[in-house]
Specification:
Organism: Lentilactobacillus raoultii
Keywords: DNA-binding, Transcription, Transcription regulation
Radius of gyration: 22 Å
Shape: globular
Protein name: ArsR/SmtB family transcription factor
CATH topology of the largest domain: Jelly Rolls
Structural class: mainly beta
Distance between the termini: 37 Å
InterPro entries: ArsR-like_HTH (IPR011991), HTH_ArsR_DNA-bd_dom (IPR001845), HTH_MetalResp_TranReg (IPR051081), WH-like_DNA-bd_sf (IPR036388), WH_DNA-bd_sf (IPR036390)
Strand content: 35-45%
CATH class of the largest domain: Mainly Beta
Pfam families: HTH_5
Number of domains: 2
CATH architecture of the largest domain: Sandwich
């Protein structure tokens, strides 16, 4: 589950701000339970217990289902990520480009693979030939099992500009037919042919619906990913603010007319769990693939 520090995440924070509800979450992490079972565990009335469960349900942390005459509660979230605003360097100017996920210029993918647009799938699912269909430019979500997709970003740096830092951010997840919340995948990033590093996606998430995922997308297929930000500096690379690899700006040819960005599942990857890229109108972040060139 993805949270931020806007008001839309308040329901989840309020739901978690209770020792009773935290105890309910711990109990439900072991198995589904009825309201009466939980009430007995808590030493509370069924009415009070139901009120606590209702707050957890409204926050998207649990769901209810029928089992005979009993109303059962089950936990539907196994992790929560909180994203804080990214602080940039105000002394640097920036060229920023957001690239729609369907605007890739090169690819080599194998099933399971496909693309989704605002109202339906684009072409046939698991048919890689559709990755060159003109309709791909409408894609808001793409996925594949093995191989790569590559994008070309414009290089607006002039001879007078000194590149100080590159930020690349995208909402990413693994790929599993339908979904699998625990399905690790090693996703490797390249810029201008230089390997920046590999991040292991923990899963292909459908525990709750993506905040921006269109309603036509079934509940049991990938709904959202995790927003990952790679920063390349003159002293190494960082992933979400943490040291990532030793690859620096000096390792990248920055004099080309464009920056190529590749997302790949390598043949020798330890976890070959595929890749899903979410763009505008899909997932939990209403953005496309974002490249920032900080310069002075």
């Amino acid at each position: 589950m993805e949270l931020d520090i806007t008001d839309r995440s308040l329901a989840a924070y309020k739901a978690l701000a209770s020792p009773v509800r935290l105890k309910i979450i711990r109990d439900l992490s072991e198995r589904k339970m009825s309201i009466s079972e939980l009430a007995n565990n808590l030493g509370l009335s069924s009415t009070i217990t139901a009120m606590h469960l209702d707050k957890l349900a409204k926050a998207g942390l649990i769901q209810f289902e029928k089992s005979g005459h009993n109303k059962m509660a089950k936990l539907v979230v196994d992790r929560i990520n909180v994203t804080f605003p990214t602080e940039i360097y105000p002394s640097f100017d920036v060229y920023e480009t957001q690239m729609p996920v369907g605007y890739f210029t090169n690819y080599s993918v194998s099933p399971s693979c496909g693309m989704a647009g605002p109202t339906d799938y684009i072409g046939k699912v698991d048919d890689a030939s559709y990755f060159m269909d003109p309709g791909r430019i409408k894609a808001g979500m793409i996925w594949w099992n093995d191989g790569f997709v590559e994008y070309q970003f414009p290089n607006h740096l002039s001879d007078k500009d000194t590149l100080q830092m590159i930020d690349l951010s995208a909402e990413l997840g693994s790929e599993f037919p339908f979904s699998n919340n625990v399905w690790p995948s090693d996703i490797t990033f390249y810029i201008n042919g230089v390997k920046i590093g590999t991040w292991t996606s923990p899963g292909d998430f459908s525990d709750i619906r993506g905040k921006f995922t269109p309603l036509w997308v079934p509940d049991n297929v990938n709904q959202y990913g995790l927003l990952k930000t790679i920063r390349i500096t003159d002293h190494g690379s960082y992933l979400d603010g943490q040291p990532f690899t030793k690859t620096s700006i000096q390792d990248i040819d920055t004099h080309r007319h464009s920056f190529s960005v590749r997302f790949a599942i390598r043949k020798n990857a330890k976890h070959k769990g595929g890749c899903t890229i979410f763009g505008k109108g899909f997932g939990n972040y209403n953005q496309d693939i974002d490249l920032k060139l900080f310069h002075s």
